[in-house]
Each structure stands twice: as C-alpha cells, then as structure tokens.
Amino acid sequence: MVLAGCGHQTAAQDEAMTVTVQNKGSDTIVNLALAWAERYHDINPQVRVAVTGGGSGTGIAALINGTVDIANASRKIKTEEIEAAQANGIEPVTFVIARDAIAIIVHPSNPVDKLTLQQISDIFSGKITNWQEVGGEDRPIVLLSRETNSGTHVFFLEEVIRLGNKDDDTLFSQDTLLLPSSEGIGAEVRQNPNAIGYDGLGYVTDDMKTIAVSRAPGEEFWEPKVETVNTGKYPIARELYMYTAGEPEGAIYDYMGWILNPEAQQIVLDLGFVPIRKIE
Amino acid sequence: MKHKQSISLSERVIERTIQGTGISAIILVVLIFFFLIKEGVPAFFEIPITSLLTTRWYPIEDYYGLLPLIMGSLIITIGASLIALPLGLATAIFIAEIVPDWTRDILKPFVEVLAGIPSVVIGFMGMLMIAPLVRTTLDIPTGLTAFTGMVLLAWMALPTIVSVVEDVIDAVPKTYRDAGLALGLTRWQTIWRIVVPAGRTGILTALMLGVGRAIGETMTVMMVTGNAARVPRGILDIFMPARTMTATIAAEMGEVAQGSPHYHVLFAVGLTLFVITFIINLAAAAVVFRQTQRSERLLS
Prior knowledge:
CATH superfamily of chain B: MetI-like
Helix content of chain A: 25-40%
Shape of chain A: elongated
Radius of gyration of chain A: 22 Å
Mean pLDDT of chain B: 88
Low-confidence stretches of chain B: none
Radius of gyration of chain B: 23 Å
CATH superfamily of the largest domain in chain A: Periplasmic binding protein-like II
Structural class of chain B: mainly alpha
Order of helices and strands of chain B: HHHHEEHHHHHHHHHH
Number of helices of chain B: 14
Oligomer: heterodimer
Strand content of chain B: under 5%
Structural class of chain A: alpha/beta
CATH class of the largest domain in chain A: Alpha Beta
Shape of chain B: globular
Low-confidence stretches of chain A: 1-14
C-alpha cells in the first residue's frame, strides 16, 4: 500500500512538470513534425509535442479555434483565416520552417537537360508527346506522377501544369501513369529512357537525372539544389510553415527556436526537404 | 425418438457451433452487401448518372467517370483468364496424365507453393523485372501496361487452376481411359476426347476461381499496370497503361474525407465490383447445374 502510494505521488509530480504542446496540420509536414517532436522529447523529456495530421486547412482551423498551439501548413495562411483568428483574439505568427523543392527527373541517358515551366506544363498536359519537340531523341514521352491523394500531386497541378493560374482548368494528360509510391516512380525512371517524372528533392538518387528549369523562355535555367531553392532561383519550390497563436512563449518559444537550429534542420535534410539555413 | 434421446450434450453443442459458423458466413456476406449499398448508393444521387458514365476519372477535380476503371478491370481479367486457362489446363494434363508418379510428386507441391507467394512480392518482381522486359521486347513506350498485369495475374491464377483441374482429371474413373484405349484411340485422343470432357464441370469451376482471383487482385495490378485511367480505343491498347477498380479503391480510400461524394463513389466502385463477381459466380453455378442435370438424364 505504502509503495503504491509513493509510486502514484511520483507520477503525479512528473505530470505536473510535463508540458504538452499541441501541433496539428499539413500531411506533407507530419513526418517532419513527428521526427522533430521525438528528437526534442529526447533532449527535453519534460516537453511532449503531440503531432497530428489532417491537412493544412484542418491545422489552421484548429489554431483559429484555439485548440492547438502550433499549426503546420504547406501553404500561406489566407486573409480570411487571419481575420477569423483575430475575431477570436488570436494573432497567428508565421514561421518558415523548411522548404520543399520538386525535381523533374528523367533517365540518365536522356539528352534533354533543361526545360521551361511552360514546356513542362505542355508535356504533362499532353500537348507535347515526343521528346523530339523539346530537343531530345525521337521517343514517345511517358508521364509519371504520384497518386492524386499526394500533396505533391496537387502542388504540381496548380503551380506547374496550371502555372499558378487559378482560373486555368488544365488537367494531367489521361495517359499519365499514377504510381502509388516514390519508389515506383524511381524504378520506372531508372530503367525507361522515355519516362519523365517529378518528386521531392529528397527522393532523387544518383542514378536518375534532374532537369534544370527556367521560369520563362530566355531566362536562366536552374538545377534543383539546396542553394538554388534557398535563394529562390529554382522555380518549383514551396515554403513550409508553422503558425503559432500569438508570439510564442515558454516551452513553445524554446521549441520554435530549436526547430530553426542546425540539429533540427539536419532532420529536414534527412527527410528529403530543403533546410532553410545551410548545414555545414 | 430413442435415437434423439441418446444424443449427448457435447454432440448438441458441436452441432450448434457448426450451424453457427455456417450461418455467420451468410450473415457476413449479407452485411458486406448492405454496407456497400448504404455507403455506395448515395453516389448515384450526388452525381448524375451521365457524369458517372464519362471517360474521365479525376476525383480531386470532381470528374467521376467510371468507364475507364470498369474497362480496365474487365480487360485485365479477361486477358489474364485467356492466358491462364490453356497454360493451366496443359500443366494439369501433363502432371495428371503424362509424367510418371515420382515426377508428379515433385511437380504438384511446387505448383502449389506458387499460390503462397504474397501478391506484393509478385508485384515487386513485375515492376523491376517483367515490366522492363515487356518494354524492351515489344518496343513499347512503357512496360507498366495492362498486358504486364495480365501476365502476372495469369501467373498468380495458375496454381489454383492447375491444382483444381489436376484433382478433377484424377477423379475421372480409370475405366473411361481403358475404354478409350480399347476402342483404339491414341493416348492423346483419350485425354482430349474422353478425360477432359468428363471433367469439364470441374475445369469450369477452376476457371471461375482463377477469374475471381484475377478481378479481385489489387496490389500486383496497382504496381505494374501504370494506373492511367484511360479508355482503351483498340485491341492494341492492352499494351498501354490501364487502371483497375481495385487499384483505384486501394490508392484513394486512405485519404478521402468520410461522407464526401468521392467517398461514396469509391464505395459505388466496390459495389460494382461485388455485382460483377456475383454475376460471374452465378453464371458458373448455372452452367454447372445445367451440366449436372444433363448427365443425370443421360445416366437414368
């Protein structure tokens, strides 16, 4: 009885010292946020970061309703969302936590090494169907894409195929192969000289070739690299965000500070995203 | 009456248990059917039937054309059956009629081990080995095609077909063969004109089991058919990518919002799949039933 009582008391004391930070939002970021939360818990056992996904909109809605401390989003918060939060007495504060670049990948033997955004759009919407039309060999183009439930698929559709134009309703060509995994895209690109695909920079390996991309004809072409993404030169990249409810304080302040330090940014690189600062 | 009294309690418990398991199978099927109807039928109210019968499947932008999915599943299933049936039949005849007993004792277990290979392993092999081979041999743009799916599905259906057909041929009485040989038929004529026709009901059952396996298979087809939702425009389009109903459900169900039109349409796809397999089984049962009747008439 005595022992049991003691045990109970210690647990209660631990609980009093433990701080739980609620973190919710984008599915693109969820693995990164989880990796951060686990590592941070190893360093600071008294802080627990509870991470859930559900999508950028879900996370921001939870922030507006005051049910989470940090919202993850792979897009910028909308003006209406800021207004809704302010109506609830919450001032969202933006943190850019990492960047995500999408590389265009082809077979290493493919002689094409640069394309404009417009050309990529025409290729994936089915207007260009032969490599000859973009300076390559006389071969049919085989289009590879992730499945429609992938955030990368939606980003590629909106920012590359539709070139960021919201009124555009161009779709992927019906001949596009939708592969369930990055591994599927990698396997096909590695062995098929006709193929073109896209994937997060972290999934690119040495046995495939990345294409240099320019925003418009006549402009410079840029390879997808950590530097070109961070300087904003590589065109197919996006920022990943965390939003806090008001200026962060206490444990949340410490956590946000830790996320921006090299140790946490190394995890960004390990998971295939682009760190916001250079890692030695 | 006296017999009934002598049934012990334990026997009655066993009887009830067996009865219970038997009925639970029926209840499960009925429950699945009602669940599919409950979740799938709203799709037909939310989305006009004319949109469901179009050729564009792109649910994140509200294009819900089911035709490419239905065509994809049917083509791959039919193709796989056309490849698997002759191969399976030949293998079974070879094992049952031609090879000596000791070879048969080695071959049959090996064929049956094939059935135990997980579909994801076959899909992986297909993706890394068969698809590149198909592309270079046939000189087509990509190896991730309906044809690749057919070959792999045929391969997966083979063990079932071989095993069942072999059992059926084995069950044909030896007197049939003796009679054939006594009439002066060659060994081949005996097999083809007497043994195989005698076992055709079982062969049909084997084919239906194979078709059932092929139409319901998900993982392998998702990995090797390319999943492009396009309607085939000609016979040569079997060498183009295709998207099946099963792969669509598997790929999209995980991320869909519950209760949304997309969610209901995916259940409607499942319902369609259920109805198609039901019709196939019904057709098979009808044919088997008719043949039984005919043989009974002949015997009487």
